[in-house]
Amino acid sequence: MSLLSVQDLHVNYGRVEALHGVSLEVGAGQIVSVIGPNGAGKTTLLSALAGVLPSRGTALYQGEALSSLSVEERVRRGLVMVPEKRELFGSMTVADNLLLGSYSRRSRSQVGTDLENIYARFPRLLERRKQLAGTLSGGEQQMLAIGRALMTAPKLLMLDEPSLGLAPIIVREIFKIVESLRASGVTVLLVEQNARAALACSDHGYVLETGDVKLSGPAQQLADDPAVTSAYLGSQES
Fold first, then answer.
1. d(CA 14, CA 78)
2. How far apart are CA 80 and CA 161, in angstroms?
3. Right CATH number for 1-78+154-238 from 3.10.450.50, 3.90.226.10, 3.40.30.10, 3.40.50.300?
4. Which DSSP string corresponds to 5-44?
5. 32 has which bridge partners?
6. 20 to 30 A from 220, CA-CA: which of 19, 33, 129, 237?
7. Under 8 Å CB-to-CB from 224, ≥6 apart: which residues?
8. CA-CA distance, 154 to 50, in Å (whole number)?
9. pLDDT tens across 193-204, in order?
10. What is the three-class DSSP state of 152?
11. How does DSSP assign 46-111, residue by residue?
12. pTM reported for the whole predicted model
């Protein structure tokens, strides 16, 4: 069953159309990746779904039109985005950044337990819980950004380039975390330039180029496709 269904989505920047009728499905409990080069429209897609950018077309989340929901209401309903730039509060501690993630939750009874679960998932955040977020390494900041998003109790987590700028050993760690999210019941829509790593952890994939979906299918099928291999997988780090 689709948790998110997008049909014929268009996004404009002024007179320039960045997405030309994108359609995709994200099944509950899946990791779905969107791969493609810089400028393909990947971040634009997530920003439109999060409500940050206006769009035309149909996007149904849990069967309800996203167009009727504000950004805040989308978060409250469990549709949460981790942006490419992470957008942490650098002058606040790790612990305070995590607690800010729970601000939209109507019920506070589970927040303490969820915070303990985040620390169990990310032991380095526990070690650095009193440290300012701006002093963390790039990998630690990405873990904090994901952890803060998990504090919203998401049903669908949208990750924008989680491996960007990270060393290969940290990239592998981040993708292990992404895989573990599926096991804990979180559905993931993953936008990523590291196509090899993205497809390796995904159930389904889409190839986005210049605002259009060029290919889609099971992730392993895309990984084995010669056209995808030559265009995206030849020089990627795993």
1. 30
2. 15
3. 3.40.50.300
4. EEEEEEEEETTEEEEEEEEEEEETT-EEEEE--TTSSHHH
5. 189, 204
6. 19
7. none
8. 13
9. 899 999 999 999
10. coil
11. HHHHHTSS--EEEEEETTEEGGGS-HHHHHHTTEEEE-TT----TTSBHHHHHHHTTTT-S--TTH
12. 0.92
| Single-letter code of the amino acid located at 55 | S
- The structure tokens 């995709």 sit at 24
Complete DSSP assignment for 155-218: SEEEEE-TTTT--HHHHHHHHHHHHHHHHTT-EEEEEES-HHHHHHT-SEEEEEETTEEEEEEE
For the record, the structure tokens of 111 come out as 């927040």
CB 237 within 8 A of CB 170: no
Q: What is the pLDDT of residues 147-158, one digit of tens each?
A: 999 999 999 999
